[in-house]
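agent: user wants the full assembly modeled, not chains individually. Plan: 1) parse entity lines 2) check alphabet per entity 3) run joint structure prediction 4) return tokens. Steps 1-2 passed, two entities, 579 residues total. Proceeding.
--- entities ---
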Amino acid sequence: MSLTLSEVMRIAALARIAVTPQEAEAVQAQLNGIFGLLEKINAVDTSGVEPMYHARDVTLRLRDDEVTEPDRRAAFQAVAPQVEAGLYLVPKVIE
Amino acid sequence: MIDASISELAAALAARRISSVELTRLFLDRIAGPGAPLNAFIAVDPERSLAQARAADGRIAAGAAGPLTGIPIAHKDIFVAEGWPSTCASRMLANFVSPYDAHVIERFNAAGAVILGKTNMDEFAMGSSSEASWYGAVRNPWDTGRVPGGSSGGSAAAVAARLAPAATGTDTGGSIRQPAALCGVCGLKPTYGVVSRYGMIAFASSLDQGGPFARSAADLAALMNVMAGFDPRDSTSLERPAEDYARELERPLAGLRVGVPSEYFGAGLAADVAAAVEGAIEALERLGAEVVDVHLPNAGLSVPAYYVIAPAEASSNLSRYDGVRYGYRATEYDGLIDMYRRTRAEGFGPEVKRRILVGTYVLSHGYYDAYYLKAQKIRRLIARDFAEAFKGCDAIVGPTTPSVAFRLGEKVDDPVQMYLNDIYTVAANLAGLPALSIPCGFAGGMPVGLQLVGDYFAEARLLGIAHRFQQATDWHRRTPQSFA
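--- prediction returned ---
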């Protein structure tokens, strides 16, 4: 498998990472090197094998539907890039 | 005092031969003085540390001390700690001062331990050399032209150079064991689910596990007794009764069967590393262990499977860094999507971006089954290999790394070569098994690590084997000359 330059740009768009056309070629070569390493798994017969998601195959716990967290909005918003009146500010998306 | 074990330090504190304030100052001075060129720390905060030390001295005076009360411990900067910068060595979190404590930090605070500082690492724990840090590369105390390993390189270097009596780290594919090996210290990755991931900045959630660094197996056990434990805030935390990780330290090795997998001694293993490891296996035999052959036929698949699963989970976990709720935000952008794109392009370093891109691709439409699902199936094959091997042995021994520490810059432009450094360590993460690395010799003046992998929850047994080995050998007592 070999990624084309346009595939690299598509992945970068999906990942929301700005990649300049100059960077894209270097990234393409590195990703193709990495995928060369990963290809090995394709040759393995895994028919009938269940995927393993947790080493102990535990199932998720449920907790009681109760309020357990204190209100720490001020502390958590103190580390945000931009807030106003308790709200996170982002660039306008609706004209 | 800088060479004392945790129990010796606790005894000195109890006997008032030294106070926690004096002990904390001693190590802070070493960090700022001889330790400075190692770049092992991202943050120290003497005022905060000394306040904790004073509180610990009060607790000791009141006769309410536990085994770690007053002991300064360095924490990998992946564990968030209230009031401390918690950066994960990323520009993305360079301005992030945590409003809360990780579970591991809560446990150490409750035990009365002192936070000595936050250690440097590969950004978001992605790397095997601790060069991929926004704060610059960490250096190996045995040779400052070489890497300390990674990703927990700052913690390993700090313990090796006697800048801290002990430290914490995290291990997703070897990030505790590999730097422990390359710096000549001890490091344990527990069974997945034993140490809570709450407040441990996420890389690959099905693999990430916190664990301790120290200079001896006995110290690792003392640290585990505080770090481990159920935490309902981590959905993968295992609910089990508390255990004493020191309970098997004195157990003799007679009757122990150690399995040697031929797959870990093949091409790619440096001859001088192999010689040191074989010497250690002979030492275990002299202590009464029986050496048996075991096989891990799918060992060669662990690096490829790991480098599908870990980037896939990373791409998902790191989607949270969007410049909205915390962390870095680009200064110039054109609209919301462009803000995300530029924030992430500027906030993440090259290796983190590479892994996000690999992960995004393997999870993207049409490729999920061929990569992520396939790798999760191979993961079960690898776990089955271990289950089969443990029918014939109690622990698996081998090298932790294929070579000793490499030179700074040597592999930084070649991700595939960097990834192959994890060849002996990633399988334990994929299977979720406990594994540790202890010093077992030198090659060309650089330390060599011996890896022990155990069955689920066999931490205490592994620590016991390591302790008996350390009573018969002195590799773990060697100190890099400039830091003695």
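agent: reporting back. Residues 6-255+394-483 of chain B form a domain with the Amidase signature (AS) enzymes fold (CATH 3.90.1300.10). Chain B has 15 helices and eleven strands.
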